[in-house]
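Second opinion, please. Pick holes in both lines of this record:
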Amino acid sequence: MAWSYKKRIKVIPGVYLNFSKSGISTSIGVRGARMTFSKSGTYLNTGIPSLGLYNRQKISDFKPSTDKQPQQQVVEDGNIFSADVQEITSQNMQGVKEAILTAHEQRAELKNDLNKIKTTLVMSNIKLYASYVLLYGLIKKEISKQIKDDINSQKEAINIIIEQIEKCFVSLDIDFDDEIRNKYDKIVSTFKSVASSNKIWDVTSEEIQDTKVTRSAASRGIKKTEVKFGLKSLPDIRGKFEALWFNNANGADLYVYPNFIVMHSSKTKFAVIGLDELDFNHSYTKFLETGLIPNDTKIVDKTWAKVNKNGSPDKRFKDNYEIPVVKYGSIYLKTKTGLNEEFQFSNFEFTEAFGTAFNEYQTTIKKLKQI
């Protein structure tokens, strides 16, 4: 009897987002059966669209988590970092997280099956070769035929599993009103610009400096690490829109989607945060640049390594030297549950444009949530 492979895979749930003037609806599940989360409660929506049959049943009230007090780690021993990603998923985004985990687990199972079948295929080819070398495969042709049938079945199974692996992802389906879509498109275009800044840094620590002691014009000392921004989606989520990717030097990377942020440390360790919960701010920073000045940065002033209160050079220091003061852009991302990140950009104008576009879109999202 020929070797065969059969496996029933789970149905990977999709995430469906609808943005319109009447509000936002976030659903999780396959078409015909979706879970909808709203401020008025959690509903199970079932139906047969082709027959026009639908049913909506309330299954629970929406309540924020009260298991523990909100925590916010801002600066600890001078470090700027976020709380553990396992602790900061939004209450109404748990379903999205479960959908992503389901896709990952199913893919891992299938990849394990694929490796086993590939190993079996190698052994079958060895058996077929041995049958000819030892002649029994030539004498009893039904033996070699059986092995060949097994090989064909194994190859077919490999192709089926590869196809199934390709389908193991959360399908992100987004439907925008034109007005809201235009605002989101502006976020993407301005993000591409700010991501092209000559330098992008993750600010990882800070400390307040006593200017009387340091004789420096800088009242805040920071440590920062160069990072990259770009459009880059997670392998477990696919859709028409790529995520805005924020590389994080001292923690989980951020993937910003139209209605939520995935703070991703690993395939099984991540948080999903509602965009409406994010406290997003942008500003500028005057920085005493002692290194190379990026070619897209503007020098706005000059100072001295050692200065007096009035800004004049402190002549007590023989090797005192002049330092250019540059204007960098800054963005800050925080939530009450523990997200806390700060980034700087060499191009202030791009930062300001992105920050403004993000704030406008986020304001729209928050208003829709209240409808």
Observations:
- The longest strand covers residues 322-334.
